[in-house]
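[step 3/7] fold_predict: job queued, chain A
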Amino acid sequence: MSKHILKKPEEVIETKIFIIRGQKVIFDHDLAEIYGVPTKRLNEQVKRNSARFPSDFTFRLTPSEALELLQLRTQAAALKDGLMRSQFATASKRNVRYSPAVFTEHGSLMAANVLNSKQAVRMSVYVIRAFVRLREIFVMNQILEKRLSEIEKVLLGHNVGLKDLYEKIKPLLTSPPLAPQQPKRKMGFHS
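[step 4/7] structure written:
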């Protein structure tokens, strides 16, 4: 049984998308798993069709980026599993000769085209939907952040106005009570 029974495919895929070098990307091994092919086959097809994969479609991570993302993935897995793990992750014991490749939204779609398997074609729709949904969430977050900034400015302006008003009212609240006044003389002739 799959551990993702209750989740939609897009939701599962969204957890595999990271922001690297300012772009939303998915690892080659995650994409290969989604498309139902070995990572080696995916990378072979990319290499054979290199003209279809410019640097804005796919690129290899630097060793420091790979280590940083491995740590992030390990921490995310620990949070997901509810386990307490070390903050510093160790690399897996498998023999890795190359840093992993990552694919942008366009590279993911191109990979499905060069793989040309039924599962890759079917799953590419979900991959694109996941990228689109994350882009919408990102845009919504930017709008909310801008709106919160505007609200903060208004509240700070109100805060200054309230302080000014308080400073003007304060003397009225703290002044001593007025002494009773002498009754005024009546006008006119008195007897």
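[step 5/7] annotate
Strands lie at 17-20, 23-27, 58-60, 101-103.
Residues 42 and 53 are 12 Å apart (CA to CA).
exit 0
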